[in-house]
Amino acid sequence: MAENSGSVYVYNQTRETFLAFRVKVADSGLSRMVGLLGKRSLEPEGGVWIVPCNSIHTIGMLFAIDVVLLDKDFKVVALHELVRPFSITRPNFRAESVIELPPHTIFKSGTMVGDQFVIERYEASRAASVASRTALP
Hints:
The chain is an alpha+beta fold. Helix content is about 15%, strand content about 30%.
């Protein structure tokens, strides 16, 4: 994705469930370095998608997170639930990107290694126009 790509949604196609609707894309050197540092928490349906990335740390963070590691085809290659502050995950060399999510997101969504994700930009204007065309008179 291009720098400053904005927000995306994360959908688990295998389980047919959404994990988050407001995921910020961290794809520049600075945005990947900063990540969630300085935040007090994550919004309930928020997160950060770090691209490229195969390992994370929570040094300096104040809250636990769930972590999903994806390969280049958005297939789940590893999961880390409730990663506590001041932790470091081991590098996973099959991973191309990492999604940091609020605690318990992995459990609530039923996500498992091998699941296929869809990650796309949500375009509110396009969704509104589709909804207006499909509305009953």
